[in-house]
Design brief:
Layout: H1 16-27, H2 35-43, H3 47-71, H4 78-86, H5 88-121, H6 128-147, H7 150-175, H8 192-206, H9 222-252, H10 263-272, H11 275-298, H12 300-308, H13 327-343, H14 345-349, H15 353-372, H16 390-403, H17 408-434
Helix pairs in contact: 1-7, 1-9, 1-11, 2-8, 2-9, 3-8, 3-9, 3-15, 3-16, 4-5, 4-15, 5-11, 5-13, 5-15, 5-17, 6-11, 6-13, 7-9, 7-11, 9-10, 10-11, 12-13, 15-16
Length: 435
């Protein structure tokens, strides 16, 4: 099976800066606005080391994505990587886990966070009809932007990324003068269980980078763009997280428990007054909007790629004659997000999310190891993670450790969901053979 990109009818218009900012946008979501308090309450000033530890674990996974992403250059991201290494059924399972168990449910949750934030400004957003209309307009805007061209969509993602970073950078720059050094001292090292539980939360705070790789068939020079974009995006996220944790801990100290729901808003208020809370509220909404916009840009490519491989309905593989985008896949994906946003179904199914993304990561690492065995000519040479099997081994060990923390309902629901996906796959194969 070839790892090269076929002629999919899409345009390679996404460069290093686009992928980098898309990764930053996809990772820094709503969670960052409460994360410093979660970490500080559990581990105090020692929490900074939790970020470093989790960034090292995720770096091993990112390096595997950088390696396989520079080798497999067709659309679909994680799906394309697994399908190239292991074939149709594993690829189909990973696609289902990713686009439904992680993508749709995550974006539906983000849409509701935006609406919940706006209820503070206007109680009208508690009305289901107004809320539904708001979702329709917002998701419709994202769909239209992404249909009209990947170049325009990535520009929009860049703009949203910069707009939501500015207030966070403002907290970092102007917050240093308000730090009390005594708040950064720790008296005790947290227990291993406390550290482990907090690390689990932090790990998922770093997840989301893989979404941006859904546009792998539209990346300029993937051999260079994928490794460099992942490295720069991951580095920026880590620096922002570490600085925000340091600023929040240094300013609020033991008081942070009082502001556990919105610690960054409390820091902003202490720096510039009540208007700081309003700015951070707007930034939180914008952050969620940016994450969903990036998801609507990237994840439909997995539907598109699966349709091209004959495993999804053919109409999802159609490319717009003018804009060169998989417009029907984008419309379908946006419609699914809208349905789950208004129905609240994501709340019941969110139990799938943690296990789904961990299994996606695990399978991509295994795919990376397998594709290493395929020899390349000098002209085909792509990026390879350093250290031989050490990096994939660290990634596998980290995922195995995180999987042990899942409860029985998360495990059971994931097994049932995989069974349903397999049933759909074999039913489609049977229908195809009959026709």
């Amino acid at each position: 099976m070839s790892t090269a990109s076929a002629d999919e009818g899409l345009k390679r218009v996404v460069g290093v800066s686009g992928l980098t900012l898309s990764i930053v946008n996809g990772v820094i979501g709503a969670g960052i606005f409460a994360l410093p308090a979660i970490v500080s309450i559990a581990m105090g000033a020692f929490g900074i080391f939790g970020y470093i530890f989790c960034s090292l674990l995720l770096a091993s996974i990112m390096l595997c994505y950088a390696e396989i992403g520079s080798r497999v250059t067709s659309s679909g991201g994680s799906y394309a990587y697994v399908e190239n290494a292991f074939g149709n059924l594993p690829g189909f399972i990973i696609n289902g886990l990713y686009f439904f168990g992680w993508g749709i449910l995550g974006s539906a949750a983000m849409m509701n966070i935006i609406a919940d934030a706006l209820t503070i400004v206007s109680p009208a957003f508690l009305n289901p009809l107004i809320r539904g209309l708001f979702f329709f307009i917002l998701i419709g805007l994202m769909v239209v932007i992404n249909i009209r061209g990947t170049k325009q969509a990535i520009r929009f993602v860049k703009l949203i990324s910069l707009l939501k970073l500015f207030p966070l950078l403002g907290i970092i720059i102007f917050g240093f003068s308000h730090i009390k050094i005594g708040n950064l001292h720790w008296e005790n090292i947290p227990s291993l269980k406390t550290f482990s539980d907090t690390a689990l939360v932090l790990f998922f705070a770093f997840a989301g980078f893989e979404t941006s790789l859904g546009v792998s068939g539209e990346l300029k020079n993937p051999k260079r763009t994928v490794p460099l974009g992942i490295f720069l995006g991951g580095t920026i996220v880590l620096i922002v997280y570490l600085l925000l944790q340091t600023i929040t801990q240094g300013i609020l100290g033991a008081e942070i428990a009082t502001y556990k729901d919105a610690p960054l808003a409390a820091v902003a208020e202490k720096i510039i007054g009540p208007v700081g809370t309003t700015i951070l509220l707007f930034t939180a909404g914008l952050s969620c909007f940016g994450c969903v916009t990036a998801d609507v840009m990237a994840t439909p490519r997995s539907l598109f790629a699966c349709a091209n491989d004959g495993m999804f309905p053919k109409f999802l593989g159609k490319v717009h004659p003018k804009f060169a985008t998989p417009y029907l896949a984008i419309i379908t994906y946006g419609s699914l997000i809208f349905i789950f946003s208004i129905s609240g179904g994501f709340k019941q199914l969110a139990i799938l999310a943690s296990a789904a993304i961990l299994l996606v990561y695990l399978t991509v690492i295994l795919a990376t190891i397998k594709l290493r065995k395929k020899k390349q000519t000098a002209a085909e040479k792509t990026f390879q993670a350093p250290g031989g099997l050490l990096v994939p081994f660290i990634g596998i060990a980290a995922i195995a450790w995180l999987l042990t923390s899942l409860n029985k309902w998360e495990i059971l629901s994931t097994i049932i969901f995989i069974g349903i996906i397999c049933g759909i796959y074999f039913a489609m194969k049977w229908m195809k053979s009959k026709s």
